[in-house]
Design brief:
4Fe4S_Fe_S_CS, 11 helices, QueG, alpha+beta
């Protein structure tokens, strides 16, 4: 009997590329045995801070078969978000992933289209699409699918390409041909660890989420602790330091996704513009942006904290963002 598995796998990968995903890989849906003790240890040390959702659904996070009945394959996809133009160095900064429209909606539309295509071309296939929307360890699955390795900064890095990618998954009850993992090419490099101003990368491959600038500026709903004042540089929503200093990201190329283009005003906001930001301007510039996650109140809190830290250092002694 003719084996349709390789043919179906190639069909899905080809369609993923047509939809704008840069890379697509497959892994077998199974229990993540190696990850279980790592995740448990990370949670026990409270490295998730107030991100309680990270501790929820522990079993489902480790076994995709608990998310999709009869799951056989995890299809991992990467979508580039590296911008053609970035904000100037002398202004308050957002993580580059938040420049354009919220990736959750952009990617989910593409995933739903891919899932419909699979059902139309292959038949009755059960499954679910995931974009940060459920307890799925996306970087682990992408690594198992051969899309890259997880670096010392805990980001997925693809050789010769870098790490400025969104990761998404389809978990299917369809047998597909799995890809093998790639080698870790971090070597002896510690640039990400050396550059992190809050020492969030506590050891190679371990990031204390509760110490990360992204956590403080997005996830934390309380006041930002005074002990990190003056350590954020100009970052007011997220942080790209550990990616910006990674040697592999010198290979990053601009995305071709129109939805990720920034609002025309965003790249021209000066520090004064940021400090005078009104709710109306916030609603306009960030109408469809991931910045909505922190809201106007959260963003103004971050701006006041970072500006206060800068004032304490003196206006001519602003910390430089590592290059």
């Amino acid at each position: 009997m003719f084996n349709l598995v390789p043919q179906r796998t190639q069909l899905i990968k080809q369609k993923a590329l047509e939809l704008g995903f840069q890379y697509c890989g497959v892994s077998k849906a199974e229990f993540l045995e190696e990850e279980a003790p790592r995740l448990e240890n990370w949670l026990n040390q409270n490295m998730h801070g107030q991100m309680q959702y990270m501790a929820n659904h522990f079993d489902k996070r480790l076994d995709p078969r608990l998310l999709v009945d009869g799951a056989k394959s995890v299809v991992s996809l990467l979508l580039n978000y590296y911008p053609e133009e970035t904000q100037p160095q002398d202004t308050f900064k957002l993580s580059k992933y938040a420049y354009g429209q919220d990736y959750h909606f952009v990617i989910k539309d593409k995933l739903k289209t891919l899932f419909r295509f699979i059902q139309e071309e292959i038949g009755e296939v059960g499954g679910r699409v995931f974009v940060d929307s459920a307890p799925v360890m996306d970087k682990v699955w992408a690594k198992k699918s051969g899309l890259g390795w997880v670096g010392k900064n805990s980001n997925l890095i693809r050789p010769g390409v870098g790490s400025f990618f969104f990761i998404a998954e389809l978990i299917l009850d369809l047998e597909l041909e799995p890809d093998g993992p790639v080698k870790d090419y971090c070597g002896t490099c510690t640039k990400c660890m050396d550059a992190c101003p809050t020492d969030a990368i506590t050891q190679p491959y371990v990031v204390d989420g509760s110490k990360c600038i992204s956590y403080f500026t997005i996830e934390l709903k309380d006041q930002i602790p005074q002990e990190v004042e003056g350590k954020f540089g100009n970052w007011v929503f997220g942080c790209d330091i550990c990616q910006d200093v990674c040697p592999w990201n010198r290979f990053s190329t601009p995305h071709r996704e129109p939805a990720f283009a920034p609002h025309p005003e965003l790249l021209h906001l000066s520090k004064n513009d940021w400090m005078e930001l009104t709710h109306e301007v916030f609603q306009e510039v960030f109408r469809k942006s991931a910045v909505k996650r922190t809201g106007f109140a959260g963003l103004t809190r971050n701006l006041a904290f970072v500006a206060g830290g800068a004032a304490a250092l003196g206006s001519h002694d602003l910390p430089e963002d590592p290059v």
